[in-house]
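Action item from last week, closing it out:
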Amino acid sequence: MNTSTALRTDRYELTMLEAAITHGTADTPCMFEAFGRRLPGARRYGVVAGIGRLLERIRDFRFGDAELAWLSGNEVVNSATLDWLADYRFSGDIWGYAEGEAYFPESPILIVESSFGEGVLLETLILSILNYDSAVAAAATRMVTAAADRPLAEMGSRRTHEDSAVAAARAAYIAGFSATSNLEAGRTWGIPTMGTAAHSFTLLHESEEEAFRAQIAASGPETTLLVDTYDIARGVETAIRVAGTELGAIRLDSGDLPTLVVDVRRQLDKLGAHDTKITVTSDLDEYAIATLRPAPVDSYGVGTSLVTGSGSPAAGLVYKLVARQRGNGEWVSVAKASTGKASIGGRKYATRVRDENGIARQEKVYIGLGPENADALPSTERPLLQPLMTAGDIDDRHVGVAGTRRARDHHAMVRSELPAGAFRLGRGDPALPTTFDE
């Protein structure tokens, strides 16, 4: 199977490349930056997700014979550009926020330093991955907050594109979800998988009891039984009668959940099933989960709202040229001045300023500084930019199963240093101000 990602881009990237080759500016050293002008949905903070996936896609961004033949046959670019593309391999440097990091308006999430030609081709790939994965992660972290340490499982594969489902499971896991129903996400990214039965399994059998007995025979009494196909109270009674008080859990997928959960917990306890847990599903989002916080819910399963970003399906990130080099080696800051879409030019370095208790208070962006200046910064400022690719080679710490787990651990650390106001679910201002130091 062809694994090239080169055509997962917009045509205008190649149009710009062709014009730059013709004009002799394709090799101009440049700096591109991915950032968000604002947080989607007036949220308090964003979450960087997709870095590990992105680095692997950049590695596979090559124009093979099939891609070149299609471009030629459809007269997308001229022969000189085809020759340039035939030798394409990203050879520049990429710095960025660690996956799982929090970000705020104008945070320089990703910095690409390369020739114009090499960097401009990556725009669509970078934004398509970071915008989706970060949107899911931002929704997921809010659900983790609402769940107050109770486990959440991602189960949205039937509500999004088949490839997006795998990406969403990974982003949710990084943000704190504990499991996924998607097996490909489990195989590719090492995420724990879960799943029991749907209503169709109960309807297959002559009775609910027969269905429960069949599931327990296959999975053991520690399984989770879905009890709302018919009458919930009767389903709970049948589940405990069949499985015994050692039944692992029951699942509720309908009804007035806040009231229903209390009734079911009371019934389970009355039957002696004090250790049988209750998991709920049914179109949950962060607000529904927060409503259930006082109820005796043990875990949640979330689908549609999670994989669609809970109302913000894209993170709103953009990718702009912020600096270019003149022939004499001098770097020149460049910026877009359009109303409502202005950008801030120049090379940047970002830190998270923390108080004496280790709580984050400010996002600080230094214009004109780079990683080589990090040692001279105050100890109260945590550097945010890390090397992701150097001379086209991936830093392996950020990819694969290990990179995914590293991102999950990093996000947990980041959450611990954010101020309490960051976790409010209502619309509001960013939890930290972004300031610029020139």
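Closing note: The radius of gyration is 25 Å.
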